[in-house]
Amino acid sequence: MASENKENYRGCPMNQNAFEEKMNEILNCTDIISGSDKEKILHLARKNQESHKLLQDKLSQLQNSLDCLRLGIKYLMFDLEATRRENTTMRKQLMERHNPDDRPQDF
Fold first, then answer.
1. Domain boundaries in the chain?
2. 61 burial class (0-12, 13-18, 19+ CB within 10 angstroms)?
3. How many whole angstroms separate alpha carbon 92 and alpha carbon 96?
């Protein structure tokens, strides 16, 4: 998955599991913080989790869109090659009809 290729601030790979572990560690450490600071940190941590989830969803959608685009391009390339082959065959047939003596003629 693409998220496994991301690096955290220390240059180490950061995957989904590592992110969740770090967020849980942060949330567990808030027990030693008191008052409004704790609420601010919890609020920011939850927003961070929501943003991360949204980012992961968007990345997944983007990967699906790219897969569909790749498949569409492959189909178009296949169709183009088939059309070229058909075109060549039809040109040969037309040349044979109009030039039975097999003289090459440019179209």
1. 2-98
2. exposed
3. 6
Q: Is the pTM of this model over 0.90?
A: no
DSSP string, 49-70: HHHHHHHHHHHHHHHHHHHHHH
Torsion of CA 34, 39, 43, 45, to 10 degrees: 10
pLDDT tens-place string over residues 41-75: 888 888 988 998 999 999 999 999 999 999 999 99
The fraction of the chain above a pLDDT of 90, given in percent, is 42
Rounded to whole angstroms, how far apart are CA atoms 70 and 51?
Answer: 28
| Chain-centre distance for alpha carbon 102 | 52
